[in-house]
Each structure stands twice: as C-alpha cells, then as structure tokens.
From TrEMBL:
This is Hydroxyacylglutathione hydrolase. SMART domains: Lactamase_B. Pfam families: Lactamase_B. Residues 22-192 form the Metallo-beta-lactamase domain. It is an enzyme of class 3 (hydrolase). It comes from the Bacteria. Transmembrane segments: none annotated. Keywords: Hydrolase, Metal-binding, Zinc. One of its GO terms (molecular function) is hydroxyacylglutathione hydrolase activity. InterPro entries: MBL_Glyoxalase_II, Metallo-B-lactamas, RibonucZ/Hydroxyglut_hydro. It comes from Helicobacter fennelliae MRY12-0050. Its cofactor is Zn(2+).
Length: 212
C-alpha cells in the first residue's frame, strides 16, 4: 500500500513497502524535485511512475533489501547520483550476502565518522548522521523536517546487531549518542513498519542501550 504524508508546505513524501521483508521505499517530494530513499526489490516501476524530476538516490545502509532495486533504477536513470555511507559501499559494490543482488556502486560516498555530514543537493540540505551497529555505515537521513532512520530505529524497537558486519558495541554507543541528540522533535520514518517520533524513541534508546 502506498501512503503519502506532508511534512510542510515544501516537503512531503510517498512510502511503499517492497519485497518479502516489506522494506519501506520513500520518495521525498520537494518543489525542485524528488529524492528516493532505499529502493528495494521491484520498486523501480513504482518509483518511475511517481517521479518527475528526480534529484538523487539516498541510501541509509547497505543491506540487500534496501538496495535490491538500485541497479535497475540506475539503469533507468543513469545520470541520477547515488549517495551511500562510505563504510557500507562494499555492500553495494558486491553481492556479499549471496542474495542474487546486482551490484551498483555509489556515485558519492558519505563519510562515516560517528558524526553529522551535511550535504547540499540542488540547494536542499540533506544531513547524514552516522550510527553504526546494524551495519558499519548505518545512518539516518534528515531532510525536510523528518528523519529517515533505515534499520537503526523503529517504532518502539531498534535494528538487529547480530548480523555479519554488525557490532553490538557500536550499536550501544550509537543508541547512547542518538538519545543525546539536540534536535527538535520530528517524525521518524523507518526502513520497516510504522512511523514514530524522535523524542519518544530517544527515551526508548536509553533503555535499549542498557540492555545490549
């Protein structure tokens, strides 16, 4: 099912879940064009039907269910830049989980130093905040007054940290840093499931970090 939500007069987004893991793909609509976040399996046709002036593809992390449609989308839109966390680039460049993924390298690698990287894409501010643990490059993206959290933060839950390339120690540290973010409350749009709120999940993150 496709859903639409307005952040403000300047930003809104569409969301649709794809694949057996029901991975959320987001299209952020701005006055200048669209940003595509995490194109999953069989998402390309839907994306192409919804975008008029795509500006960039933004990847939260490199797990296959979030990038399975990336190669097909890149083939359809070869000039569209792909931004991804540098520490997860190897997951885009190879089928490291042996899932049948077609590799597709990012155009721009976003630095991963447990900090915020502020990008300006077509005059629009896009922030990557690096929170490793689920993957080495796992990040949340803040754009248009909303946070796209990938598989780091879910509604009343957090991402798993027992996969290959995951780290419980990194996840514990990331949750602590997340709980201390000095940001205005905003909607969180996760990689799976329903949306939630930053302030609510910051309180939960403290509890999760103590249990890892």
């Amino acid at each position: 099912m496709q859903t639409k939500h307005n952040h403000s007069s300047h930003f809104s987004h569409l969301c649709k879940a794809f694949g057996i893991y029901q991975t959320n793909c987001y299209i952020i609509q701005t006055k200048k064009g669209e940003f595509i976040i995490d194109p999953g399996e069989n998402s390309t046709q839907w994306i192409l039907s919804q975008v008029k002036n795509p500006l960039a593809i933004l990847i939260t992390h490199g797990h296959f269910d979030h990038i399975f449609g990336l190669a097909t989308l890149h083939q359809a839109l070869p000039n569209l830049p792909i931004y991804a966390p540098q520490a997860d680039a190897f997951m885009l460049e190879s089928d490291c989980f042996d899932t049948g993924l077609t590799p597709c390298a990012p155009s721009y690698m976003v630095a991963c130093d447990k900090n915020e990287q502020v990008l300006e894409i077509e005059g629009i501010k896009v922030s990557y905040l690096h929170f490793p643990g689920h993957t080495p490059g796992c990040s949340v993206i803040v754009i248009g007054g909303a946070m796209y959290s990938g598989d780091f933060i879910f509604k009343r839950s957090i991402g798993r940290y027992d996969f290959p390339y995951s780290s419980a120690n990194d996840m514990r540290d990331s949750l602590q840093r997340f709980s201390e973010l000095k940001l205005e409350d905003m909607e969180i749009l996760p990689g799976h499931g329903e949306s939630t709120r930053l302030c609510f999940e910051q309180n939960n993150a403290k509890l999760w970090s103590e249990r890892i």
